[in-house]
C-alpha cells in the first residue's frame, strides 16, 4: 500500500497553490527517506516539490506595496534588471539610507474615524460664537426672510466647496496639512503655500474671535451677578481670553486623545443647549421679566413683523445685507476641520466627504430653525422695564436707540428664551471654546506641513515634531502669539469680516482646484467621489470671489495682494518639489495644443525666428558656443542642443547626463532643449538630429557649429564628417552658421571634475582638440553629481572644476564686474584666467566697439538679421553695426552705396557706417604665399587615389578665381575689421562635386585666421524680411547695370 505525504508537507509546510507554484525537476526521495526511514523508497510515492513563482522569475506581481508614494515602498525590478544589461546594479546602501531617513521621520499617530475625526470637529467648528451671540442680531438686522437667504447662500457656497473638497480628497492619499496639502498637491506649491499661510492665519484669528465670544458671554454672566475683574469689558476680555488660549494650547499639545475626549464633552453641551433653547421658545415666556426683555412667545404678528429686514447703524457702521452676511459667514467656515487633521484620519478619502457633508447639512438645518424660532418668538427692541410692559410701550425706547434688550440689542437673548439659562451658558462656552480648540489644533499642523515641504525658509524651524506623536510644539507657540495678538482687539464685529475674506479666498481656490483638474482631466484625476461637477466648481469659485468684494472691496483687495505676494515669493524661490499638480498637466496640455495649432498656421516672413540646432556636445564642454546660440535665441526662439556620442551609453549614465545638462542650463538661465544620440558616428548622428529634432513647426531652421581648428591634422574621416554635415544641412534647406573664436571653443579639460573617482568624462565632445565638432569618447562621461560650481575653482588641481552656470545667490553681482570677481575669488594661473575670460566671452558686457557685417551675398537676409539681434542684447548694446557689401561695378561705388543704404533703411536697421568693397583685384603675393603654406602639407601634383584626401593642382587651378576672391576678402578684413568686437560674414557656398573638404576649409581658414570672434552665415535663400522688398531689389539690380 502506497503512502502519501500530507498536503502541507509537499512544500515544506507551505500552501499548495497551483496558480503561483510550479513543480521543480529533481528527486525528493531523500526528503521522504529522512521523514519515513522505515519505508522503502520503492514503495513510497512522493509528489515533486514545488517552488513559488517568485522564486522562479524576476517579475513582480501586482501589489499595493509597489505603488506607494514612499521611499520605503517595495520596488519592482527595473526594466534593466528584467531585460539585462550593464546598468542593472542596485545600490543597497542608498536603499538602507532611505529606509533609515524614512523611519526617522515616522511617528506613531492615533488614527480617528469619520465621526470622531470629521463629523464632530466640523460641527464644533461650525457651531461657534455666532450661534449664541450673533444669530439673534442677524435676524434683527436682516429679518427672518433675508436671514434664511444668508444661510442659504452660505450653505450653497459651503456645499459646492464640500463637493469640490471631497473630489480632491478622494483622488489620492491625503496627508497632514489639510487645505494646504490639498491645494498644493492640486494646483502646485505656489497656490498651495500662499493659501496655506492665509488659511493658517485665518484659523488663528478665528480662534481669537471665538475666544472673544467666550469672554463676552462670561462677562455677561459675571455682570448678572455684579462681578468683574477690572471693567467687565475690554480689559476683562483680554485677561480671560489670554488665559483661555493658553489653556487650550496646552490641551492641544497634550495630544489627540485628550483633545478628542474634550470634544465629546463639548458637543454634548452644545446639543443640550440647542434643545434647551428650542424647548424654551416653544413653551413661551414664564414671567413678565422675560416679556419685558423682548421674549413674547410664538406669534404670527411678531413673525410677520420680523420677516422683513431693518438694517441699522450699529457700532460705527451702517450695515447692509452683505455686511450682515460678513458677520454671519464665519459661523459656517468649519467644513475644513476634518481636512485640517487629515493626517490623523484612518481613511481620509472616505471620512472627509461623508463627515463634512453630514455636518454641513445638520448645521444649516439647525441655523434655519434658530432663525425661525428667534424671529417668531421675540421682538427686535425691548426696554426690559416692567413698568413699560404694564403700559404696553416696551418698544418705545427704539425711537431713541436706547433699548437694552431685544434681538437687536442683547447678546443674551438665547439665555432669556431658554427653559433653563445655565445650560445655554454651558453650550455657549462649549461652542466657542470647541471652535477655538479646533482652530488652535489645525494651525500648528498646517505650519508644520509647510515647514516640512520647505516652501518658505522661515517656517522650516516649525517643522520639527516632538514625542511619539510628532507634536509641533514650536507651531503651538507661534499660534499662541498670533491668536493672543488679535484677541487684544476684543471686538467680534471688527474681526469677523476679515476672517470671512480669508475663508472665502481659501474656498474659492478649493473650487478652482477641482474645476482646473476636472477641466484638464490628467490621467491621474480619478476621484472616487463622483458627485461633483466641473462647472459647478467654477460657479463656486466665482461666487466666493464676488461675495468677497461685495462684503468689502478693500479688504478683499488686500487679501488677494497678500496671496499674490506669497505666490510670487514661491515662484521666485522655485522650490524643488514635484507633486503632479494640475498646473503641470495644464502646462503640458497647453504646450501640446499650441504646437498642434502651429502646424496649421501659415509661415509669414514677419514672424520669422531663427530656431537653432547647435552641435556643441555637452554644454559644459563648449560654453562659448552655447552662450552665443543663447544670445540669439534668448526669450525669443527655439534652441536645441545636439550631442552625438560614438559609444553606447548605459541607461543610468545617459539619464545622469541629461539631468546634469538641464541642471547646468537651469543654473545658467539658458532656455534650451537637449537631444542626445549615442552609439553612432558624428556624421550619422548630426544628420539624424537635422531630420528628427524638434516637433512640427518647432523645428530648427539654423544649424550652428563650431569651427574645426584641427582640420589639417585631424583624422580624414572626421574632416569628411564635418564637411558632409554642412552638405546635409543645405540638402534639408537649413541655414548654416559657423562660429570661430581665438583659442577654440572646447574647454572640457578646464571644466571636467577630476576629483570624482567614478567620473566618466563623456560630456566632452573631444579631449585632444579645440574643434567644435568631434564625437565624444565614452571614457569622458561627467556624472550628474559632479561638482560644477565656480566656488571650487582655485582649489588644488585634482579637486577643482569650473562651470559657467551662475550660482544661486550671485544674481546681484553685475555682469561688468564678473571678471574682477573671478580674479579676486579664484587663484588661477594667468593662462587659466585667460581661458576663463574666453569662456565668458558672450556673457560679458562688451566695451564700445563695432560689429562688422560683411553681407556679400543675398541669402535671404539672415546675414544681416543675426548681427542685428546680437546688437539688441544688453551686453552688446554699446556695439554699432558697420556694414560692408560687395560692389558689382567698381567704377560706380557711390551709386551702389546709396542703393544699399536705401535697402537698409527699408529694413529699419540702425548702422553706423556703410562701405562698398570690390574683390575683383588680385590678392597680394604675401597673401597668396600665406595660402600656399596652409596647403603645403595636403597639396599634391598627382591625382588622388582611393580614400586619400588631398588638394590637387587641378582643383586649385579650376577654382583659382574663387580662391583669389577669398584671399582678397582676407586682405580687406585685415584692413577694415581687425579691431572689431565681432565679425559676421556670408559663408562661401560649398557646391557639391566642385570643391573638396580640404580646399573649402582652407578658404574658411584664410577668412577667419587671426581675426576677432567670427561668425560665418549662410541663409537658406528664404527671405527673413518683408516680401515687399522684392520690388526694391529689382530697382537696385536695374540701377547697378546702368
Automatic annotation (TrEMBL):
Q: What are the protein's UniProt keywords?
A: Chloride, Glycoprotein, Ion transport, Membrane, Potassium, Potassium transport, Sodium, Sodium transport, Symport, Transmembrane, Transmembrane helix, Transport
Q: Which domain of life is it from?
A: Eukaryota
Instruction: Name a GO molecular-function annotation.
Output: sodium:potassium:chloride symporter activity
Q: What is its main location?
A: membrane
Gene Ontology terms describing biological process: cell volume homeostasis; chloride ion homeostasis; potassium ion homeostasis; potassium ion import across plasma membrane; sodium ion homeostasis
Q: Where is this region: Disordered?
A: 1-51, 75-102, 751-778
Q: Name one GO cellular component term.
A: membrane
PANTHER family per record: GH09711P, SOLUTE CARRIER FAMILY 12, CATION COTRANSPORTERS
For this entry, the protein name equals Bumetanide-sensitive sodium-(Potassium)-chloride cotransporter
State the taxonomy lineage: Eukaryota, Metazoa, Ecdysozoa, Arthropoda, Hexapoda
